[in-house]
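W.,

You were right to be curious about this one. When I first looked at the sequence I had no strong expectations either way, so I just let the prediction run and decided to look at it fresh. Below is the sequence, 320 residues in total, followed by the output.
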Amino acid sequence: MLTASLIGTALGITIVLGAGITAYLWIVRQPKLLVVRGITSLASMRWREYADFVVGALRAQGFDHDPSAARPQKGQPADLVLSRDDQTWLVGCKQNLGEVVTATQVADLAHSVRDTGAGGGILATLGQVDANAKGTSGIELLDGPAVWSLVEPLLPQSLRLDLQQRARGQTLRDIQLSWLVALLGGFAMAMLLPSPAVPDPAPASVTAVSRAAADTVAPAAPPANAAVADPLSAVAPASEEQRREAAMREISALPGVEEASWATRSTLVVYLTDDDASAEDVASLCATIERYDELRASRLQLQARAGSETPVRFKQCHAY
């Protein structure tokens, strides 16, 4: 059953989960998604167009195309020849998304650099660079995200806006789905949490007479199976626990009652000596329990003697 407390807890968990996932998708994942889409767009270009963007990006770092160099050829260790500070640089451009640059490829480029007397080499790939391929002196390695960060400012504005809108649109769709997941998770987690304990109902009221009597010292308890004194002349015990004990002892001493004990704070079990309790017996029980304001609404569980086929009965002498 969905209670107000359960719904409130579930909505609180939903807000925390949804806000956290939204922040991650928008701040962390959306930029990564833009990089992935950008690299994919570079891979879909003609190789010559992709190489021109790489050259343009390197030109901002002081490189320039060497007009005296031979026309670059795709697939060679060095696809392009650039110059900087009167030195030539060999540049390899790899456009395959699934390619992993190996140590052998880097060694081939380094060998070409030494053979030609070039100042260094650059290997740019839209794929990945193997960890064993890194660290070769004189060779700079650029993987997909590094190439994208260099090339992105040179792309046409229309292409960059399109990529940004596509990344934003996918992020918004993922955020909508994440809130649905957060809502389901919130209710699931709320239902797994332990339910708060429900306290027993507070007494309806305490009269001025009983409040005054509560400040007095409780009288000595009557002996077992003794006759009950006049209730109007008795002074109520000081604390609620003492009043519960007093009520239990008084009912245990009534005719037809073998024993009485509290099963819960709101249920008193009365063990009868006879199978059936007469109307006078029940009236005596009610008269005794109604003397105590906070106990008068307690439920009496009338328990027949052991071995009897008489079913258990319940009696509530006073409504809340």
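Here's what jumped out at me. The mean pLDDT is 81. And, maybe more interesting for your project: The longest strand covers residues 87-94.

Coffee later to discuss?

I.
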